[in-house]
Amino acid sequence: MSAPTLHLMVGLPGAGKTTLARQLETEHHALRLTKDEWMMPLFGWGEFGNKREVLEGLLWTVAARALSLGLNVVLDYGLWGRSERDDYRARAAALGARVQFHYLDAPFEELWRRIDARNKAPLPGDVPITRAQLEEYWKIFDRQRPTPEEMEQP
């Protein structure tokens, strides 16, 4: 039996991470864990504070169990920081799983176009994002964009 794969989505809101995650879920018979789909049902509207970290911990527990059972997993988080990406790579290795990064990038104006459209016709679980928030996210992510070499590391 081959080792399971942990698929890790990397990118900003509006880049297409969840769309690709759904595709990978089907193609690789994987458990897909999309953080944004859990936030609103669990915590409702408002300031999330440390709730994202709590949820990520819970979802990782589920992902780790699935990987240990030989199931492929898609973690649809965003993983903006290099240290986050390295952490999940190490976690997967400790479980004997392979890692496949999926880095989705788009120009700022394209991201905003997609987010604005999503804001106007949200689906259940969609969290509205303002242009000012996206600008701030862009600045944070821009300092830690992954390199091709990083994405190819096992």
TrEMBL record:
Lineage: superkingdom: Bacteria
InterPro entries associated with the record: P-loop_NTPase
SUPFAM superfamilies assigned to the protein according to its UniProt record, in alphabetical order: P-loop containing nucleoside triphosphate hydrolases (SSF52540)
Pfam families: AAA_33 (PF13671)
Coiled-coil spans in chain: none
Protein name from the UniProt record: Kinase
Lineage of producing organism: Bacteria, Thermotogati, Deinococcota, Deinococci, Deinococcales
